[in-house]
Amino acid sequence: MGVDRRGSRPLHQQVAQALRQEILGHDLPPGAALPSEAALCERFGVARSVVRQAVAGLAADGLVIRRQGRPTVVAPPAEYRRLVQRATGLFEQFARRGQELRTTVRRLCPAEPPAPARAFLGTADTLQLERVRLVDGDPLSYVRTWLPAERVPGLRPEDLTDASLHQLLTTAYGLRPVRGRRQVRAVAADDMLAEALHTEPGGPLLLLEGGTTDQDDRPLEWFTAWHRADRVVFDIDVSDTVETVRIDAPRDEAGEPPGPVDLARARDLVAELGRVLG
Amino acid sequence: MGVDRRGSRPLHQQVAQALRQEILGHDLPPGAALPSEAALCERFGVARSVVRQAVAGLAADGLVIRRQGRPTVVAPPAEYRRLVQRATGLFEQFARRGQELRTTVRRLCPAEPPAPARAFLGTADTLQLERVRLVDGDPLSYVRTWLPAERVPGLRPEDLTDASLHQLLTTAYGLRPVRGRRQVRAVAADDMLAEALHTEPGGPLLLLEGGTTDQDDRPLEWFTAWHRADRVVFDIDVSDTVETVRIDAPRDEAGEPPGPVDLARARDLVAELGRVLG
Lengths: 278, 278
Hints:
Chains A, B: Residues 9-77 form the HTH gntR-type domain. 2 copies of one chain form a homodimer. Chain A folds into 2 domains: 11-74, Winged helix-like DNA-binding domain superfamily/Winged helix DNA-binding domain (Arc Repressor Mutant, subunit A, Orthogonal Bundle); 80-235, Chorismate lyase-like (Chorismate lyase, 3-Layer(aba) Sandwich), CATH 3.40.1410. Chain A has 9 helices and 11 strands. In chain A, the strands form 3 sheets. Chain A has a 6-stranded antiparallel sheet. Chain A has a two-stranded antiparallel sheet with strand order 1-2. In chain A, 30% of the residues lie in helices and 31% in strands. Chain A is of the alpha+beta class. In chain A, helix 2 crosses helix 3 (48-60). Chain A has helices at 11-24, 37-44, 48-60, 90-96, 115-121, 157-160, 165-173, 191-197, 263-276; strands at 64-67, 70-74, 80-83, 102-111, 126-135, 138-148, 179-188, 204-213, 219-228, 232-239, 242-246. The longest helix of chain A has 14 residues, at 11-24. Chains A and B meet through helix 1, strand 7, helix 8, strand 8 and strand 9 of A and helix 1, helix 5, strand 7, helix 8 and strand 8 of B. Strand 7 (179-188) of chain A pairs antiparallel with strand 10 (232-239) of chain B.
């Protein structure tokens, strides 16, 4: 792929644009060395001075890092990682790392949910909550949450400003978000999302969506969260051999809280299980 | 947000474009009802005939479904789901559902890995493997894999055409992919990826990246897989209470395979554990 010598754009900008595209597409991942100047000259059919100007432009944009006597490398992105296997909300994950996540509430009012939210929640009597989460003053994600209205009476926008919805559900309503299934997609930003997240319309967003049930396995929330693709990475641990043991808060038939769990015996059993399995 | 009456594009195309953007951005998710004709007329400040033409265009593109006497809804996308918590490869996940995943090998040759792959594999003596996975003749994902060269002597492209890399590693080399950590990102397609995946440059792709270790906890592969955003969804189960018990294939100090596992005793222990925990 060469450059367009008859186009109106300077050659160095064309070279820079091609490399920028490969960096943003992760085709040249963070930490990867840029091809040598000689290799880039040959690939694009341009002079070394053109390549130097292109790379200088990428360095000025913070996309690559030039190092004395060593290859230029793709810069690590300024991004936040999110463990998506935990029901723990974004707020708690940031708080644990000592980072402040701010939240502005854009909307909280009764509204009919879309079909997937309605199917999960089992009701159309819902509150629609729209929030923007920010770190260092810059938006990180836009979150739309549907809550069964009868489970959160009196919920006010100011309760959720710079606060955690999950914490509020637990402390004010005794509802603990425990588990659910999530879907992850890449989508293109529409105008509303691009405006709210300070990105370009049509650009990629990382979407996390799903329902969460409470400690009694009752549906508690359905949410759709769009994340800035340049700021957020989801981490997932995978294995073909992990067996999960759900340690639930159980209830008896009358809905009474359970008696104390024999944790010492449980620990012994887990230890023996480990030995039996080698 | 109204329409541009002095622009060169017909009003119905402008209305259709705004709605298309919201559908593709998941702001109007699959299953959601489109606002009523009256609401759309008011929002865009256009006549009902313009709205009808716009919605007819979306229906012709398969983005919405019109139903006699009921609201028009956003169509479910034609997409494939991938469980990302399992080390099981895409090939096996499709085979289990009776779907045929085809694979073309675009490149297999010795090459130096980028920094993250090198750090994980602990060597720069690697093979670079580039594959396109297709379902129904249409590309689903583009996968770049780095393998330690000394662990897969004699590996040929034809061994991997329409085949599973993980299966081949297991049967031909005795190397079983067992676990790892994955990162999930949304990225914009560059020209190479857009061409290989039949999408638009700059459009969203769903990226899955990470390293996998084998049954002896040795690094086996590092891969980056770009997925078509309109065809692939990742499913993840989340919980704040799941404790994992890793049932590993153990080895003794001499690296000998382990003796038989007492599965009956293991099952008893798990059962008692369940009772103890309520």
